[in-house]
What we know:
This protein is an all-beta fold. The chain has two domains: 2-13 and 326-422, Immunoglobulin-like; 29-319, 7 Propeller (Methylamine Dehydrogenase, Chain H). Helix content is 3%, strand content 46%. A four-stranded antiparallel beta sheet has the order 1-28-27-26, with no helix packed on it. A four-stranded antiparallel beta sheet has the order 2-3-4-5, with no helix packed on it. Strand 19 (220-225) and strand 20 form a beta hairpin. The radius of gyration is 23 Å and the shape is globular.
Amino acid sequence: MKxxxxxxxxxxxxxKVFSQSGWxxxxxxxxxxxxxxxxxxxxxxxxxxxxxxVLKTTNSGLNWFPQNSSTNLNLISIYFTSNTTGYIAGDTxxxxxxxxxxxxxxxxxxxxxxxxxxxxxxxxxxxFSGGSSYDDVTERKYYYKTTNYGNxxxxxxxxxxxxxxxxxFNSLEFGWFxxxxxxxxxxxxxxxxxxxxDWVFSFFNNMGIYSVLFIDTLNGWMSSKNSxxxxxxxxxxxxxxTWITQxxxxxxxxxxxxxxxxxxxxxxxxxSRIQSTTNGGVNWIDQTSxxxxxxxxxxxxxxxxxxxxxxxxxxxxxxxxxxxxxxxxNTSTEIPDKFSLSQNYPNPFNPNTIINFQCSMFNFxxxxxxxxxxxxxxTLVNENKQPGSYQIEFDGSNYPSGxxxxxxxxxxxxxxxxxxxxLK
Length: 424
């Protein structure tokens, strides 16, 4: 009877969905909105969010520990120049700095009350911050620059600026800022090639620009909307002289972009949307689309396979496959006479195991893994499947030892649930 009670509890709580094929949910221990994430290597990283929340991990996200940020203001953008030195920008002109890996944070001297949306450094001593949220109506003509490790910040007023919403530099000479134009009812992207002495027009959109990223002086991407008001991603390979739009558009606002090189990139946005490209943004594919209402605010990768996404309600996701589902195959061309789920093998396992299931007709198939508390930890399949026998490999490398359940659903109806044991 004890085992039956545990099983009933698991089924009741098994509707908590945050993960998707290629991505796993990490336990942040928090429910506040997370706005930014940054790693200095594959193990050590930080994320920050509302109400002064700062979290650190030293084991690739398996465990997260809160740090005392010395503020209760919302923190929006994060950048680390080393394992020990980092900066976070946020509301009412807040910039906090650490030189000991976040054990303590101190506030930098910045003459601004803007809700800062961006901060980045081009070397250990020189960094830039600026911007403000779209609903902040205060005048924001300035961005801010430090050349002494964030000890002080100079206010800089570029020509043509009135309402700077974000700023991005990738070297001392090359930078971009987005200016909201009330007169033109849109957003203008400006570019400098001489350390901000002069700024030239690069792009205009009457729908807004939400994220800008350049990995060098030529290759860049931004999140905006096209002429049909469809949220989309634009790309350039000539330093912003021309911009090419993805067609037909993402359909969902992309809040954050990150590229590891000229070809491999990801976008994270509203309504649980994660997209990826392997050809520099010519084509994008969906990696997740679930749990409506969860918005992702920031994405970061340390290489082409390992990355993290943070968002609403303390959500943190991780991938070690570039967000791509691996180890999945159709094992037979024969059509089964029923839907069924087989016992995994080996069982117990460490760290990989094989799960087989059968489909007798074309249907929407969901195969999910849960821990003993009923929390979903992985979604192995979540798409339409043709009739056939399928095999998928589950990798438990990022999970602790214990009992897990995996459940097969057809069009939302539970077909079977089985137990497996991860023993490390």
